[in-house]
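Sample entry (332 residues):
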Amino acid sequence: MQTRVLEIDEKSLKEAKNIILEGGAVAFPTETVYGLGANAFNGKAVENIFRIKGRPNDNPLIVHVHKDYDILSLVSHIPEYAKKLAKEFLPGPLTMVYKSKGTVSSAVSCGLDTLAIRIPSHSGAQQFLKYVNLPIAAPSANLSKHVSPTASEHVYSDLQGKIPLILEGGRCDGGLESTVLDCTGDIPVVLRSGLITREMIESCVGKCGEYAYKDGDKALSPGLKYKHYSPNCRTCLFDSSEIKSALEAYDKERANGIKVALLCDNNTAELAGERVVLKLGETQSEFAANLYYLLREGEKIAELIIAIAPEGRDGIMKSVINRLSKACGSKL
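Predicted structure, serialized as tokens:
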């Protein structure tokens, strides 16, 4: 199969819709990461996504819809707090989980009686979703467990020959997957952290809980159960208080002939001297936007990425550290 990368226009949208209607899969941009989409009503099309990615079939998917889509055709109830959150944050990087009406394929939610729905803010995503006018089940458009794609070339690298079309939408400016919020109870509960933080949710609707996944639990959201976001090279992670140890580890590995790259914030990079450095930036938003992109860049040039976690664990940093730990959480 030939994989083409096309700019989003009337011609490519028509082709994308035909692929979707025929049960195929199309990669499309969002403000967070690129998604691999298929018709959520078509069980075989949804199951094909799992096969393309090599994704475990107990890891639920998110349904993407355009901003004017009638969500109540898919879910049985939308709580008042969810309506407030939608008004405040949607379209945007927030996925909300509701009780499902069972109208989409059961393969989407892996047997759960809930459905995760997202309305992305990326203009290209909105064009695509509006044109097909269907709920599109979509995980990230990469091979399972590899670093999530924030550019079309990342999708092409992983899925070349596996899908017919990638809609070009530029580099994703958010960089981390959406926050996933359980909206089936009396208060919202964060299942997966993201760019919409718990503090932001609480400022809008008051109380907000946070789910702590335990081994053996059934996955209620993507991103909980399995190792994720890992580059195709060795990795290790040091805390912000362990900069000296990280630099010593870099020098030791280099002395043994290993190609090494440091991944760190700009302030830490100033201490690295002539070492090879992948600079995350200076702000929390820059860390989020650059993390996956730099992990992909790092695997091209290094046999080992030594990551030094930036300081801070509040706000978006909670999500950055979560993804960084999943990608590089081991020690040398």
